[in-house]
Amino acid sequence: MKEKMARPFSMFSSSLLLHAMIICTMLSQSQGDNEFVRQPFRPIIHTPHHRSEAEPQQVHISLVGKEHVRVSWVTEKHAESVVEYGMASGKYTEKATGEHSSYQFFFYRSGRIHHVVIGPLKPSTAYFYRCSASGPEFSFKTPPDSLPIEFVVVGDLGQTEWTASTLKHVDSRDYDVFVLPGDLSYADTQQPLWDSFGRLVEPYASQRPWMVTQGNHEIESFPIIFPDGFRAYNSRWRMPYEESSSTSNLYYSFEVAGTHILMLGSYTHFDVDSDQYKWLRADLAKIERRRTPWVIAIVHAPWYNTNDAHQGEGESMRQAMEELLYKARVDLVFAGHVHAYERFTRIYDNEADSCGPMYVTIGDGGNREGLALTFKNPRSPLSLYREPSFGHGRLRIVNETHAHWAWHRNNDSDAFMADNLWIHSLSTTKSCWESSSVPHDEL
Ligand SMILES: *[C@@H]1O[C@H](CO)[C@@H](O)[C@H](O)[C@H]1NC(C)=O
Ligand SMILES: *[C@@H]1O[C@H](CO)[C@@H](O)[C@H](O)[C@H]1NC(C)=O
Ligand SMILES: [Fe+2]
């Protein structure tokens, strides 16, 4: 975990930075590409536990393979790791058991963190479920098994009043899967904030699968005691890494309805001789574009970024992995980290390239650090839309060839679609698969 990782923010400078950013946010006017006045800072929400101690809290679900879902939750007291579920409210025809664990972080001891995989489940179907045989009933809808499908993409969520409004906007229209490119709770070692975050997102994350990868705020490492970090993140946000032959919760891939999604790790090794790199190369080789015409990659620190914030932090990962993604004709790369929205053209190696991925930075979920207000000028011709505002993105993959991307800015209590475009899949772009354009060792 030493050199070649995107440079994390030091935990200790982050509170200074926080205050500086709050002041900037309050003083600054628009620095984006239009006249919209930047949203000012809003405070953190602490979400208390309202149920009894033994009752489940922080319920969230994630996809495990094509037909299964992992249900995760926390109880403060002993409770069984069991999920009862069925297709009608209150009628639980099925039951599955799983495992639980807890972790220690200095003087904090977590509750029991339960993970239970349920299924096989039918596609596009509502299920009702209850955890630990007590507490409220929850329900979710499984994603479709073929296109169309709609993803919500939003990074750097945090748990402020802006986070709450982003989540409300997300929820105001149906979608299938929530994809989070890192930086979840902004607990920054204050472990109870992980619990508070889990409770804040429960109404959403218990209803739709949340697929996450790590950001710098998940690291929480400490010399000698917790040198590897990710203790809370890996315990609470367990993702289906074994299913894609990954050996780490910090990177994995999953497939859903014609889409192959690579959840990469910006804060673990990614060099050519790293496990992640070898895993990525093998995972890309397994993709069948006939089955999954769309391929999407998620990182935390952006590889392309014209904001003043976090310049160069994704550069060593780009240098290590960009060629692999390019040769595999990955359609889209989403990043977080920079608290703004920015959309690029298709790029390979710092140049516009019609066979490269389209890059989008969407680290604008609403965290307590505020917005990254200043973009570099003159604007790079690769950057097509940039704006420091909170918001969320929606990727609706309509069919094998077409997807619609839309970015919705938080305009106070409303969401406003400020940017949108149609995207064509590279899998059906013939010129990108001709022998002259596909490098020889791939043929
Ligand atoms: C895919 O969707 C686009 C946009 O709706 C449409 O124009 C196109 O005809 C569709 N293609 C196929 C093969 O259905
Ligand atoms: C934002 O909301 C206000 C009040 O509802 C509305 O007047 C304005 O047009 C909106 N602007 C944008 C850019 O969404
Ligand atoms: Fe970040």
UniProtKB/TrEMBL annotation:
Top-level taxonomic group = Eukaryota
Name of the protein: Uncharacterized protein
Give the species this sequence originates from. Bauhinia variegata (Purple orchid tree)
Taxonomic classification, please?
A: Eukaryota, Viridiplantae, Streptophyta, Embryophyta, Tracheophyta
